[in-house]
Amino acid sequence: MTQEEQHVPPHAHPHGGADDRYARGLAALAQVTGTAHPAVLDPVAEIAPDLARFTVEFGYGDVWSRPGLTPRQRQLATVAALAALGNAAPQLRFHIGGALNVGCTRREIVETFIHATVYAGFPAALNALAAAREVFARRPAGEGAPEDAATAPAADDSADGSTDGAPAGGDRYQRGLAALRAVDGPAGEHVVHALDDIAPDLGRYLVEYVFGDVYTRTGLDLADRELASVAMCTALGTAGPQLRVHLRAFLRVGGTREEVVELMTQMAGYAGFPAALNGVAEAREIFAEQDAA
């Protein structure tokens, strides 16, 4: 789970075999590191060998290796959550590199951090972009996931992989309102109108900036944006009502219940079990709501 999440030396684990959790975890960790023999947990093993072993066995052998989310989805959700938490820069850098190794593009990573301005604020997003710049600078352009037609930066984009990606001109409010309706349905407009009597400008900014400026950008599709939103709201642990809104939105734009449950399980390793359990409780509520309907 970081540059501190490296390989435990073979002598640190007593068991072997193709079906062993540790062996399975090392294979998953190798996908993230992009190396056949990941050495990222060696420093941890020197002082806390059991923690290094737990990281491989549980974090990668049990959780990361599960079906339900693709490696790309897991890494996108992980960098979104770590960016939102803002307290784990080494791990964020590690997982930015891992995201590139499993198929995310530089632009998708940058877009995820721009998206984070909405849920974690500008300081967290700017810090995450600084981490991305460091990782990109250490890797030759094009190393890792190739940029494809859907995500390739425009010719005038900056060398660090960022892109303008801004939507076409027009009225920001109307553009945002259309995006809000597409993503959140009637619930989104209800949130905006609930602010009319106390903070109408905040409601307008919600439509213009969040949906008119950010959600309508290119670089991430709506399913990826909602995956990142759910990961961030879950990791923060302070946004239950917003998490419910984005769980509905994720399911509305093509996400599945299995992916939601897997995402919460993934968050246990990066935001802790309480955050994951609270997320599952919110998901249970949304599933029951949909079943009742």
* Total beta strand runs: 0
Supply the number of helical segments. 14
The helix/strand series, from N terminus to C terminus, equals: HHHHHHHHHHHHHH
Instruction: Tell me, rounded to a whole number, the average pLDDT.
Output: 88
Largest sheet: none
Q: Characterize the overall form.
A: globular
Give the strand content: under 5%
Q: What would you note in describing this structure?
A:
With 293 residues, the chain is an all-alpha fold. The chain is 67% helix and 0% strand. The protein has 14 helices and no strands. It is globular, with a radius of gyration of 20 Å. The N terminus is likely disordered.
Secondary-structure blueprint of this entry?
Elements: H1 21-33, H2 42-47, H3 49-64, H4 71-85, H5 89-101, H6 106-120, H7 122-138, H8 172-184, H9 186-193, H10 200-215, H11 222-236, H12 240-252, H13 257-271, H14 273-292
Describe the structure concisely:
With 293 residues, the chain is an all-alpha fold.
Brief descriptors of the model:
mainly alpha, disordered N terminus, single chain
